[in-house]
């Protein structure tokens, strides 16, 4: 059994598809385990429940779903999972996060435009101050040169 799992591991690693590897491995292990059981044991629901519940960290799940969406691996041809996927997206509020990001981006762009206009106004004021100082400096220089020439 370990040899078979090892060979399966090598074959799947070549494809670099971790999800299909795990699914295939789970199916094979389930068949092997069922083979060793008696027929009445195979029907025990306590041993083989229809639904298995487990804990998943919300943040890590959200990150993983977004990674799958970005890589194009989230959409599949299986229609039976589409309801589950939509429920998961709704529960994790992933669509809301994307909408919030768009709204925040618009707000930030507006603030950036305001900041740019404010900076342009400050720049214009500084240019006017510079011109005024240069005029005053030229007037002072002219007065000093006139005094030097008189002396």
SSE map:
Blueprint: H1 2-15, H2 18-35, H3 39-42, H4 58-71, H5 82-92, H6 94-150
Tell me what you see in this structure.
- This protein is mainly alpha-helical.
- The protein folds into three domains: 1-52; 55-92, no CATH class; 101-151.
- It is built from six helices and no strands.
- It has helices spanning 2-15, 18-35, 39-42, 58-71, 82-92, 94-150.
- Helix 1 runs antiparallel to helix 2.
- The longest helix is centred in the last third of the chain and has 57 residues, at 94-150.
- It is rod-shaped.
- It starts with a helix and ends with a helix.
- Keywords: Coiled coil.
- Residues 94-143 form a coiled coil.
């Amino acid at each position: 059994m370990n040899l078979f799992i090892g060979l399966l591991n090598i074959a799947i690693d070549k494809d670099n598809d971790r999800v299909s590897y795990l699914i295939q491995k789970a199916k094979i292990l389930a068949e092997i385990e069922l083979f060793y059981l008696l027929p009445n044991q195979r029907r025990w629901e306590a041993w083989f429940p229809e639904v298995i519940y487990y804990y998943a960290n919300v943040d890590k799940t959200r990150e993983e779903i977004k990674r799958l969406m970005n890589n194009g691996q989230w959409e599949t041809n299986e229609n039976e999972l589409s309801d589950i996927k939509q429920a998961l997206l709704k529960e994790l509020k992933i669509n809301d996060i994307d909408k919030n990001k768009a709204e925040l981006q618009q707000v930030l762009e507006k603030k950036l435009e305001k900041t740019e206009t404010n900076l342009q106004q400050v720049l214009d004021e500084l240019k006017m101050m510079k011109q005024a100082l240069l005029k005053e400096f030229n007037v002072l220089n002219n007065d000093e040169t006139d005094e030097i020439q008189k002396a």
